[in-house]
């Protein structure tokens, strides 16, 4: 079960995400459902189409199961299947 404490170790596809901070200021405000995830990127389905963003340069607000969590993209860096095994101290 996904909780705010373990969200970075779970699958993110299907989670609603919003970019709240980014080194690329054009990415701020992108909001929608995560439809694909690779080692370095997230693909978000927005009202205007699919947007691909780099994980390493963003801070995301993830909304799922009644929770809202801010996560630095660097904590999500890596392949989803490897991230499940990784120990993360803080994010």
Helix and strand arrangement:
Blueprint: E1 16-22, E2 31-37, E3 41-46, E4 49-54, E5 58-64, E6 67-72, H1 73-76, H2 80-83
So what's the CATH class? Mainly Beta
Largest sheet: 6 strands, antiparallel
How many strand segments?
6
Rough outline: globular
Q: CATH superfamily assignment?
A: Ribonuclease P/MRP, subunit p29
In the CATH hierarchy, the third-tier topology is known as SH3 type barrels
| Total count of helical runs of at least 4 residues | 2
Rounded Rg: 12 Å
Q: How large a portion of the residues is in β-strands, by DSSP E?
A: 35-45%
Going across the biggest sheet, name each strand in turn: 4-3-2-1-5-6
**Total number of distinct structural domains:** 1
Mean pLDDT, rounded to whole units?
90
Amino- and carboxy-terminal Cα gap: 19 Å
One letter per element, helices H and strands E, the order comes to EEEEEEHH
In terms of per-residue confidence, which ranges show pLDDT below 50 for 5 or more consecutive residues?
Answer: none
Judged by helices, strands and strand pairing, the structural class is mainly beta
CATH 2nd-level architecture: Roll
Helix content: under 10%
